[in-house]
Every structure is written in structure tokens, then in C-alpha cells.
Structure to design on (476 residues):
């Protein structure tokens, strides 16, 4: 193990099976775990209190930020679902398991897919959140994805028939895509990705002029979201030097979190961490990073489920103030899947996130790396690092109509299937799913049932806040 907590997974002999043997394995699993059982979920008799599970997570988070997390989760059952990956992992652990493993996203809800610029600068669509990534049963990701569309469909006011069509469509699109990937040459599968130009061309014939205009505006907005835009939005000049603005509690400069006596030492500590992070990059990207000098750091609140974990933004400059690089260092805690699927092979959870992202994402940020750092409280924690903004865009659920949700669900399902086929045995999974719609119907039924449970858990948190058991800060 290296000084920064790196440990590669254990090396071993790699076995190679024929396509026929792999397909036979998938078919054999059907006898042990029939596809219909995936739709038969019900809460365990001794199911733990959902607020207890959330409070368990809160113990390792920044205390003053936890009420913000709860406030964001209580905006709607959908935002609650976004923050409830741990609850769902505990529920899935009590259900059937195929044993057909892939590298799971671990939190594959519909808002964790989005657009970004690939290294060749083309806009692509893929998974974009890997905090919970871990190898596990492929169906766990599919169930979370389908349930997220059911919860979102309810939020958008869709009727039962419309929601059922979308939920089953998620499973069908996943099944058809995994079959397609199972028949691909290995390198073709590895390079497969969705470019936004292709998305527009594919769906333009059935879209309205208004929908196309909205699509183009969203793409343009994402393209403009880069380090230069972040620099304009998040910094101001102090004595002629750019500094990250203070906007507590959402953005707090590092020096404001430190005792006055030690604040002057912070810059040296950050520079040391940057050198440690630099060692996790490939040689060419180390050279690229070395062209930038460190300027300033601040803590920033991000997301919904991630609120309370430690996230920092780091400003660096290249040749001048018109050449910024904004990095985000985000705390990587153990995956919520680990209590149920076993510990990660990686000693550093930042590396766990990075390796999982590289394995499953269509094209990853060139600045991906990781560190282990000592926090303000003296505790050592793992972080992964990436660019803060690199043409990143995400879907606005509140603007999606029925047709938009249907199209988007197909894109997400295809993307998830590609990630699983690339990291797991796509042939075995495809053989397990088969040509019938049995799995589709089961996943549709699961999505409805689990959305009911999500609403009960949402109400439990709401009641906990109303009773004073936990505190929530709204509107932040």
C-alpha cells in the first residue's frame, strides 16, 4: 500500500469462457432466481426505521450541514429518493440476487445521468455519479433506475397507465440493449457511447419544434459550463488576486473554517495535497496539471444525498487570470452497498470511485484522481478529484412531459446496460433476461411497490422533523 492509501485489487488468474458457456450460466440462473421474483418485493418484517438509517449516515458528516441535507430531501418524494440510496440498498439486500455481477453505479436514479464533454470535446451522455460504485448484482441498478422513474412520474402527475409504460420500458430498453452489447466485438462495446448529436438526429423526427429548441438550449447551457464560467460566477478580486466568494453555509473559504493562528499555513498544506493527487494521474496529465498554480480553496455544499460529506473547490490558474482550472475534491466514504455486498478491494475510497467511473463511464474526466487527506478535525479521509465543471448538464425533471420521460428513460437504460456489459458478463445477463417480457413486467411491478415505500419513508422523515427528532433547514 502506498502512502496515500492506494492498494490495487488482488491479481489472479483470469478465466475465459466461450460465449456458449457464458450464455448457459445466465440461463441456469433463471432456475435459481426466476425473473418474476424481482417484482415480488415487500418490506422486511424487521425493517429498520428509515430515519435511524439516515441518522446513521449523518454521524460521519459535517454536523451543521446535515439539516440542509434533510431540508433538500423533504422538497418532494423524488428529492427524498435521491438522498435515500442507503435505505434502498438495505431493502434490496433482503431480496433475491442473481449473482450476475457488474460494476454498479450504486445510485442509478435518473438524475445521476447527464451530459459532459469527452476528452475529444464532443458532448456525450452517460452516468455521472459514482460515489456508491461497487461490484454487485446487476438488477440492483435496474431496480433503482426504474423506481426513480416511477417516483418522478408521480411527481409529474402521470397516471398509472402512463407510469407503468415508462417503468416497463426502462427494463425492456435495458434488456434489449444488453442483448445488443452481448453480441458486439469486445472493442466495439468498449468504445460505444451516446453523442448528443446522435440523440438529436434520432429523436428529431418525432419531436416538436418547442422540444428541439429546449434541447438545443440545454446543450448550449451545458457547453458553456466550464472553469471559465465557474471563475466568473464563483470568484472576485481581493487586493488584486482572485479569491473564491464567501456565501455561507453553501460556500465557505478554507481560512474562514480555521483558527486564525493556523490559517496562514493552509496554503502549504493544500499544495502538498495537490502534489499527492498529481501522483495518481497519468504522466501526460501530470504535466498538464503542473502548468497551473494554486490560488484558493473553499468548502462547497453539493447535491442532495451528498450534502454533509466534505466537498471542496480548488481554484488554480494557468498563464493568467483568463486561464482558470476549477477542481472539485469530494469526500469518498464507504459505498452504501458495502454493508450488504462486502468491502471494496480498494483501500482508498477515492480510488474506488475513480476506478469504478473509468470502468463504466463512456468517457471520463482527464483530471480524475484521488487523495487521502487529514481533515480540519484531524481525521484522515479519502477524496476523489475531478474538474468542477466540464460542460456538465443534467435533466430538469420538473420540465419533462410524458414523451420526454419516455425518451429519457430509454437513454438511461441503454447507458446503464452498456456500463454493465462493459464491466460484467453481458452475455450471461442477456441470457438470463431472455427474449420475453417477464423481467420487464417484474421490474415495473417493483417500481410501483417501492415508490409506495419511498413515500412512507418520506413521510417518516417529515414527521421526524415536525416532532423535533431531527432538524431540517429549507430553502438552502
Amino acid at each position: 500500500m502506498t502512502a496515500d492509501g492506494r492498494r490495487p485489487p488482488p491479481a489472479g488468474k483470469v478465466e475465459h469462457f466461450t460465449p456458449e458457456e457464458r450464455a448457459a450460466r445466465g440461463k441456469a440462473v433463471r432456475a435459481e432466481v426466476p425473473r418474476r421474483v424481482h417484482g415480488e418485493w415487500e418490506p422486511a418484517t424487521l425493517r429498520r426505521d428509515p430515519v435511524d438509517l439516515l441518522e446513521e449516515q449523518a454521524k460521519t458528516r459535517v454536523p451543521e450541514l446535515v439539516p440542509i441535507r434533510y431540508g433538500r430531501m423533504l422538497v418532494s418524494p423524488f428529492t427524498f429518493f435521491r438522498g435515500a440510496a442507503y435505505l434502498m440498498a438495505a431493502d434490496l439486500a433482503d431480496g433475491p440476487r442473481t449473482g450476475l455481477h457488474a460494476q454498479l453505479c450504486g445510485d442509478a436514479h435518473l438524475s445521476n445521468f447527464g451530459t459532459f464533454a469527452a476528452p475529444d470535446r464532443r458532448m456525450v451522455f452517460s452516468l455521472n455519479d459514482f460515489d456508491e460504485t461497487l461490484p454487485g448484482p446487476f438488477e440492483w441498478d435496474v431496480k433503482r433506475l426504474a423506481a426513480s422513474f416511477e417516483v418522478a412520474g408521480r411527481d409529474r402527475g402521470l397516471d398509472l397507465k402512463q407510469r407503468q409504460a415508462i417503468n416497463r420500458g426502462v427494463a425492456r430498453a435495458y434488456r434489449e440493449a444488453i442483448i445488443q452489447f452481448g453480441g458486439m466485438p469486445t472493442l466495439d462495446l468498449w468504445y460505444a457511447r451516446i453523442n448528443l448529436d446522435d440523440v438529436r438526429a434520432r429523436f428529431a423526427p418525432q419531436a416538436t419544434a418547442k422540444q428541439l429548441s429546449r434541447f438545443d438550449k440545454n446543450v448550449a447551457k451545458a457547453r458553456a459550463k466550464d472553469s471559465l464560467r465557474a471563475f466568473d460566477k464563483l470568484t472576485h478580486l481581493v487586493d488584486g488576486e482572485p479569491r473564491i466568494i464567501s456565501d455561507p453555509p453553501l460556500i465557505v473559504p478554507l481560512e474562514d473554517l480555521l483558527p486564525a493562528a493556523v490559517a496562514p499555513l493552509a496554503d502549504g498544506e493544500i499544495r502538498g495535497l495537490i502534489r499527492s493527487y498529481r501522483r495518481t494521474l497519468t504522466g501526460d496529465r501530470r504535466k498538464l496539471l503542473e502548468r497551473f498554480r494554486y490560488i484558493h480553496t473553499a468548502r462547497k455544499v453539493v447535491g442532495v444525498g451528498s450534502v454533509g460529506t466534505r466537498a471542496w473547490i480548488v481554484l488554480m490558474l494557468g498563464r493568467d487570470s483568463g486561464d482558470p482550472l476549477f477542481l472539485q475534491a469530494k469526500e469518498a466514504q464507504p459505498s452504501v452497498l458495502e454493508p450488504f455486498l462486502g468491502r471494496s478491494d480498494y483501500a482508498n475510497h477515492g480510488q474506488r470511485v475513480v476506478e469504478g467511473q473509468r470502468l463504466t463511464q463512456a468517457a471520463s474526466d482527464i483530471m480524475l484522481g484521488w487523495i487521502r487527506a487529514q481533515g480540519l478535525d484531524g481525521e484522515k479521509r479519502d477524496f476523489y478529484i475531478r474538474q468542477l465543471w466540464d460542460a456538465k448538464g443534467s435533466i430538469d425533471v420538473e420540465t419533462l412531459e410524458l414523451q420526454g420521460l419516455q425518451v429519457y428513460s430509454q437513454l438511461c437504460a441503454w447507458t446503464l446496460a452498456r456500463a454493465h456489459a462493459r464491466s460484467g458478463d453481458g452475455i450471461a445477463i442477456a441470457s438470463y433476461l431472455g427474449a420475453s417480457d417477464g423481467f420487464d413486467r417484474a421490474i415495473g411491478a417493483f417500481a410501483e411497490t417501492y415508490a409506495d415505500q419511498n413515500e412512507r419513508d418520506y413521510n417518516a422523515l417529515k414527521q421526524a422533523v415536525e416532532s423535533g427528532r431531527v432538524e431540517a433547514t429549507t430553502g438552502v
